[in-house]
Every structure is written in structure tokens, then in C-alpha cells.
Write a structure and sequence with these properties.
about 100 residues, alpha+beta, 2 helices, extended
């Protein structure tokens, strides 16, 4: 009887681990082609590749495919906030 209970507990634990792996969402969204103006967008090297900020997303090329991050990585948030800060500063100095 104890062996059956132990087997049931192990089987349930294994099933719950397997389900967790299948429901993980990738950190990126794959797109069929990049936006036409992507090369004019601000660029940062992140994760070993050029990453372009365009219309609220960070795009990058991965082995010929284009993707953008589902959630903006923290260091890229910092870069974006510095750009916006510099733009406001430049606008103020032009007056």
C-alpha cells in the first residue's frame, strides 16, 4: 500500500513538472519581416547583436529571422530613457 502511495506521489510530481515546461512563453515574438525603416531606428548592441528600437519594441535579427522582445529588458529601458532625456535636452537648447 505504501509503495502505491509513493508511486502516485512521484507520478503526480513528474506530471506537474512536465506541464510547467510546455506552457512557458518565449521571451520574444518572431516576425515575418522587419519594419521597412528599421535601419534608421536607434541601435544598441545587446545580447551580442544589434538591437533596434522601433515603435515601442526592440527588434533584432537571429540567424536570418527577425524578432522583438516580448518584455523590454531592463538595460534597454535605461538606454531608451537616456535617449528621451537627451532629446528633451536638445529641444530645450535649440530655443
Amino acid at each position: 500500500m505504501a509503495a502505491r502511495i509513493l508511486f502516485s506521489v512521484i507520478a503526480l510530481a513528474a506530471l506537474s513538472c512536465d506541464v510547467g515546461v510546455r506552457t512557458r512563453t518565449p521571451a520574444y515574438v518572431e516576425v515575418s519581416s522587419p519594419p521597412v525603416e528599421i535601419e534608421t531606428a536607434p541601435t544598441v548592441i545587446y545580447g551580442g547583436h544589434a538591437t533596434y528600437f522601433y515603435r515601442d519594441h526592440w527588434y533584432y535579427r537571429d540567424h536570418g529571422s527577425w524578432r522583438y522582445y516580448r518584455h523590454e529588458p531592463g538595460i534597454l529601458i535605461e538606454h531608451r530613457s537616456r535617449w528621451h532625456s537627451n532629446e528633451r535636452h536638445e529641444r530645450y537648447n535649440r530655443r
